[in-house]
Amino acid sequence: MKVLLRAVLFLDALLNLLLGAVLLLSPFTTFYSALQLPQPQPPMYGQLLGVALVGLALLLWQATVNGQLTVAVARTVGQVNLASALLIVTWMLMLDLPVQGAGKIWLPVLAAVMAFFAAVQIPAAKRVRVRERAQRELQKETQNKDAGAAPVARRPQSPEYRREPGVTPPPGYGPGTEVMPEPVPDETPSAHHARQNPNP
Predict the structure, then answer these.
(1) Are the CB atoms for 88 and 110 separated by under 8 Å?
(2) Do 60 and 18 meet the contact criterion of CB atoms below 8 Å apart?
(3) Which residue, among 21, 16, 27, has the nearest Cα to 64 in the 3D structure?
(4) Considering the domain boundaries, does residue 155 fall inside one?
């Protein structure tokens, strides 16, 4: 869905660049006469709108390349395209826009293209935004689970399973080198014992 949205933004950038170039030529009456389009009056307003459309085309190009701008720009530009298409149709049907010859073809085609772009950009931007939000929430949940499981994995072992560091005893110590005390010899009764000497 995001690939389709970027493709539509690229085509919209080309359209806005073309419209901006046409409006920058507002002072040339022969150019508008050849296209059979109404000339902006005064021409300065047309040129200002042309500069704005060229800037919008650059923004659309950046949104095509930079994925972080795609959703926000597509949502906003889609609404602008929808409003522009409705405005063109309103001027042609209700406000007697002075259009003759090929101009009656150029403006309806422009309104239809803008309406098509809006019909793709607005819902696609919404879907991509919902999908990216769900992915961010899933990543947060995964990170929280990992952070909660880390202390459990690092919990110290209980004393009965803890391994003491190995210590090498010095020479002369260790199993089989214990010093046993010498046995105490049986004391013989002294000569003055009553049983030994009955005649004191």
Answers:
(1) yes
(2) no
(3) 16
(4) no
Assess if residue 31 is contained within a domain: yes
SS (H, E, C) the chain: CHHHHHHHHHHHHHHHHHHHHHHHCCCCHHHHHHHCCCCCCCHHHHHHHHHHHHHHHHHHHHHHHCHHHHHHHHHHHHHHHHHHHHHHHHHHHCCCCCCCCCHHHHHHHHHHHHHHHHHHHHHHHHHHHHHHHHHHHHHHHHHHHHHHHHHHHCCCCCHHHCCCCCCCCCCCCCCCCCCCCCCCCCCCCCCCCCCCCCCC
24 found inside a domain: yes
Q: Is the pTM for the entire model greater than 0.70?
A: no
Number of domains in the chain: 1
Q: How far is CA 191 from CA 27, 184, 186, 197, 199, in A?
A: 149, 20, 15, 7, 11
Q: pLDDT per position in the chain (200 positions), as tens?
A: 778 888 889 999 999 999 999 999 888 888 888 877 888 888 888 899 999 999 999 999 998 888 888 888 989 999 999 999 999 888 888 877 777 777 788 888 989 999 999 999 888 888 888 888 888 888 888 877 776 655 545 555 555 555 555 666 666 666 666 556 666 555 555 555 555 555 55
